[in-house]
Amino acid sequence: MLAPAFDxxxxxxxxxxxxxxxxxxxxxxxxxxAIKLAPPAPLSPTAAAVAxxxxxxxxxxxxxxxxxxxxxxxxWLKFHTGAPLTEDPRQAAFAFIADxxxxxxxxxxxxxxxxxxxxxxxxxxxxxHLDRGDTLVLSGPGIAGSRSFAAAPLPQDFRARLLANRxxxxxxxxxxxxxxxxxxxxxxxxxxxx
Length: 194
What we know:
Structural class: alpha/beta
Oligomer: single chain
Radius of gyration: 16 Å
CATH superfamily: Bacterial phosphonate metabolism protein PhnH
CATH architecture: 3-Layer(aba) Sandwich
CATH class: Alpha Beta
Number of strands: 9
């Protein structure tokens, strides 16, 4: 028996979409996201809420090893969204990552092409904290001056990954980091102090 999704899909998905868009518009600024969902572990309720909002039958998704080894996660996502699961991360519109410290290299995913930079993968990364860890100094669209940002756990080379991702702009991946109660975005347009 699969766990239920949103009680009111239309209202809930609109609220989650607004929150994610606010996070994208203000990179590195965590936005509260209180969700009552009970997806199969290790998929977090906030990551599940994002999935229910952005996935549909035309939107392939990829799961990291921690999520993929629990078959109920893929079954739950496919049942509630109609989205196809892909084992090729370059074919995924969205990738869901539970083991944030061991997330694959960004080059593993679709980077888009010059003519269609939007054909890249958005990474939805579960983290324990959106207020701890190595501090990054962010600037770029949506940030007046600069903004400090920290999340944990993340790979040790995360700053270098973001710097390399920015070099590819307008290509590159976008990131949506989700904790238990909030969401923050790190779009490809972001600049990170070296």
